[in-house]
Amino acid sequence: MAVLAIVKVRQDFRVTIPKEVRELLELKQGDEAVFFTMEGWKERVCFRKSGH
């Protein structure tokens, strides 16, 4: 597993993904990024890209 980015959740709960990471994941306008945790993965967040 590689850490692609570390982000801070701001007061208004917006998360900015660095440009390099967006390009690596091929994120485009309209794509959905889902961040979630899994049982047994304490303090870890998983990422799933789902296209429309």
Fold and architecture overview:
Strands 1-2 form a two-stranded antiparallel sheet. The chain is globular. The protein has one helix and two strands, in the order αββ. The mean pLDDT is 70. Helices cover 12% and strands 19% of the residues. The N and C termini lie far apart (26 Å). It has one domain (1-52): Ribbon (Pemi-like Protein 1, Chain: D). The protein is α+β, with helices and mostly antiparallel strands and 52 residues long.
Produce the secondary structure layout.
Elements: H1 19-24, E1 32-36, E2 46-50
Antiparallel strand pairs: 1-2
CATH architecture: Ribbon
Helical content stands at: 10-25%
Q: How would you sum up the major sheet?
A: 2 strands, antiparallel
What is the strand tally? Answer: 2
SSE order, one letter for each helix or strand: HEE
Widest β-sheet, arrangement of strands: 1-2
Describe the structure using short key phrases.
1 helix; two-stranded antiparallel sheet; globular; 52 residues; alpha+beta; Pemi-like Protein 1, Chain: D
